[in-house]
Amino acid sequence: MNKTLKDLQPKESGKIAKVLGAGPTKRRLMDMGVVAGTEIYVEKKAPLGDPIEVKVRGYNLTLRQEDAKNIIME
Q1: Which residues neighbour 38 within 8 Å (Cβ) at sequence distance 6 or greater?
Q2: What Å distances lie between residue 13 and 25, 47, 73, CA to CA?
Q3: Could you give the count of Cα atoms lying within 13 Å of 2 in the half-sphere of its Cβ?
Q4: Residue closest to 52 by CA, chosen among 22, 24, 13, 26
Q5: pLDDT band at 43 (very low <50, low <70, confident <90, very high)
Q6: What's this model's pTM, rounded to 2 decimal places?
Q7: How many domains does the chain have?
């Protein structure tokens, strides 16, 4: 089973292998710099795990778990 962004813990990082999904959600993620080959660092997670704050391409981005599980990590 592939590891997803949702599986990473705070202070962990990894490289994006693939972004799953289709339509406006995938387009929105890609427009924000979440594309294959990009390093991503998990800053923190909310107490219940949703949302997740990550650092990608030099800026902070907050993602829902629903979106994070569609980001496959290397």
Answers
A1: 15, 16, 56, 57
A2: 22, 19, 9
A3: 16
A4: 13
A5: very high
A6: 0.85
A7: 1
Contact in structure between 49 and 66 (CB atoms under 8 Å): no
Q: Which domain holds residue 19?
A: 5-73
Structure tokens at 17: 């292998």
- In CATH, what number is assigned to the domain containing residue 43? 2.30.30.90
Yes or no: say if 2 and 72 are a contact pair by the CB < 8 Å rule. yes
**Tokens 């590891």, located at residue:** 3
Q: Provide mean pLDDT across the span 27-41.
A: 90
| Tokens of residue 42, six digits | 């998990």
Query: What 8-state DSSP symbol labels residue 49?
Result: S
Contact between residue 38 and residue 19 where contact means Cβ atoms under 8 Å apart: no
